Amino acid sequence: MLDQPPLTNLQTRDVESLIHPYTPLHKLKSTGTLIMQRGEGVHVFDTQGRGYIEGMSGLWCAGLGFGDEEMIEAATEQLRTLPYYHIFSAKSIEPAIELAEKLKEIAPVPISKVFFTSSGSEANDTQVKLAWYMNNARGRPNKKKIISRIKAYHGVTVMSASLTGLPGNHNGWDLPVDRVLHTDCPHFYRFGAEGESEAEFTARMAKSLRELIEREGPDTIAAMIAEPVMGAGGVIVPPKGYFEAIQAVLDEHDIILISDEVITGFGRTGNWWGSQTLNMKPKTISTAKQLTSAYAPLGAVMVPEDIYQSYVDHSAQLGTFGHGFTYGGHPLGCALGVKAIEIYQKRDIIGHVRKLMPLFESRMKRLAEHPLVGEARYCGFVGGAELVADKKTRRPFDPKQGVGPQTAKLIENNGAVLRAIGDTIAICPPMIIREDELNELFDRFEKGLNEAEAWVSKEGLRTA
Asked: One Pfam family this chain carries (predicted)?
């Protein structure tokens, strides 16, 4: 492993003060932390003055990069005008109204109402509660199970972590809870059978879903939730025709499709929504992250009129709609959401993404030729390079060898922040990145991969 420099005083204070999410906590006292101090454009700078291209947009979210003056001005103006208010008990605020209207205008399917949360986890947690509420209102009290997928990521609340199909989100947490089902992961490279075509694989995925539904009973299943592109599961792009195939199964059994657009919304895939890119026809939508370009926490659930009317009907029966968050619809977040959408539109951010997508694709294809990379996956401006011990057989490394995290660290040492998802290195740059910056990001990615290949060979990890 890499030699670790002595911890600075600030790093020591950090380790002694914070619980770091998604971190091997037992290693922190020896490895320390990387403490960022400022950001500018697509670059971030640590407390030692070192600069990095932020190749993950933070956590898939800072689409407009760091330090955008229009966003800062919008935040400042809102804080001076009304720093906080709520939308409980028939109160409201202008930024929430305006943002809801903008979301309805750009939605990929007919949307009537928007419910605001503070995060994507809260949005997906809310999706489950709303599905239960809807079916209670419609006199279907047993139609409550939610289908997710193996390797899906939908958040970290008790329910959204249950929807997440990753062992690290379940082990040690007593999850998943009841009413959550997981169907197959649509990753052809890793789960396709020998001699099976992508079309045959897709048909098998639909067949497996149908069998799950029929085994459980369609009258017990409320919804299926799916990311257009599975992000934290390893940037998994489903085969062509996948969503059309599973949509037919869901429609046949009166099960709604929820699109988790927390990562894929607002231009990331070359369209406003990943649903459009992957030809999904969801009934409801969750979003967050690039909704404000991460300049403030905000999430949202978007629902059509017929579903909203079931909430109205049940509210009439019960006397109120008993759900909400203190910061749901926060004026700062909503004002920044309004400004972010305005910027995406007037600067034609989606057009910029589309212009650079061929370059992104060509550099990802070049990564696929690297001796350490088994598969390079991408969709729009998000990608993942899966590291393998044997390219021919697709044999993975032993997870205990830590090849992915070590590779991400070597890339970081070359001045680029990417993310290891197991042994997949994810890349998700700010959508404002210039052509020269994108090439430089991939150059640093490749330098880190070359160093990782040398380390793997030196340590004999392919035969370990």
From this structure: Aminotran_3
pLDDT class for 386, splitting at 50, 70, 90?
Answer: very high
Query: Mean pLDDT, the chain, as a whole number?
Result: 97
Fold designation for 69-346:
Aspartate Aminotransferase; domain 2 (3.40.640)
The pLDDT assigned to 5 comes to 81
Q: What is the dihedral of CA 328, 274, 124, 304, to 10 degrees?
A: 70
**What's the order of all strands across the beta sheet hosting 382-387?**
373-379, 382-387, 424-427, 419-421
Nearest to 47 by CA among 4, 10, 7, 6: 10
> b/e map of 158-188 (b: 16 or more CB within 10 Å)?
ebbbbbbbbeebeeeeebbeeebbbbbbbbb
Indicate the Cα dihedral angle 354, 358, 359, 365, nearest 10°: 140
Architecture of domain 34-67+348-459: Alpha-Beta Complex (3.90)
pTM recorded for the entire structure: 0.96
